[in-house]
Specification:
about 55 residues, mainly beta, 1 helix, 3 strands, about 10% helix
Length: about 55
């Protein structure tokens, strides 16, 4: 049975993905692809590291 899950996760975009994000409007729907990793060696908070982002 498919489930729909909602949560807030901080995201980080670098390089080409960051340039794409810079031209977007606030509240615009996007599809982000990447990986989850901890923020740093000392901070275990999860962050979505965006590799690719597209408009929906």
């Amino acid at each position: 049975m498919p489930r729909q899950i909602q949560c807030d996760i901080p995201a980080l975009a670098l390089g080409a993905a960051a340039q794409q994000v810079g031209g977007m409007r606030s509240g615009q729907r996007v599809k982000a692809e990447g990986f989850l990793a901890q923020r740093s060696l000392r901070i275990a908070q999860l962050v979505l590291h965006i590799d690719n982002i597209t408009l929906e």
